[in-house]
Specification:
alpha+beta; 6 helices; about 30% helix; elongated
Length: about 180
């Protein structure tokens, strides 16, 4: 199902091409690291402002591809929201529950943006450190107590204290990015 329009002419036909959903003749045959031809096409098509041409397809990143394979194996029918979540931070699974820990402040903010209804956001109270996004599957299911304990343990382990959260530690849990907090 994956169609790579910039290099499709160099690759075997995909199902969308065989089924006639796209015209293979309109797809390109770009290869190599040079972006000159892409920039020429942008000029030809009247596109004046665009991101700096660099990098490549996220699917060619070995780390992300491994995460995506695991997501596909664990979550039949995953969608773009799930794929976006696994692009961030450190990824952990407890059964059918995904735990994503932010590594930097920007990732913590991104995890808050990515939270869906039914997800939980956890942070250690009064201790700088990661935010945890906890998403149970099937989507909308509530994480069980064991999953939440594991998320809290990981917060302590990867937080500023670098040790597992002690029983007296306090974790803030919220269902909404800007409120709904409760301490546990």
């Amino acid at each position: 199902m994956l169609l790579r329009p910039l290099s499709a002419q160099l690759l075997p036909q995909t199902m969308p091409e065989r089924e006639g959903w796209v015209d293979r003749e309109r797809l390109l045959d770009l290869s190599g690291r040079s972006r000159r031809r892409q920039m020429d096409l942008a000029q030809e098509w009247g596109i004046g402002e665009y991101e700096s041409p660099a990098g490549g397809c996220l699917l060619t990143d070995a780390s992300f591809s491994a995460r995506l394979r695991e997501l596909m194996a664990r979550v039949p029918g995953f969608d773009g929201a799930d794929a976006a979540a696994i692009k961030e931070g450190r990824i952990f699974w407890t059964g059918s529950t995904l735990i994503v820990l932010g590594r930097r402040h920007e990732e913590n903010l991104r995890l808050i943006e990515l939270a869906l209804p039914g997800d939980l956001l956890l942070r250690e109270k009064d201790v700088p450190g990661p935010t945890a996004l906890v998403r149970a599957y099937p989507r909308g299911a509530s994480p069980n107590r064991k999953d939440l304990k594991e998320a809290a343990r990981l917060l302590g382990l990867y937080g500023k204290g670098k040790k597992p959260l002690q029983e007296k530690g306090v974790v803030e849990v919220s269902r909404e990015p800007d409120g709904g907090k409760s301490a546990t």
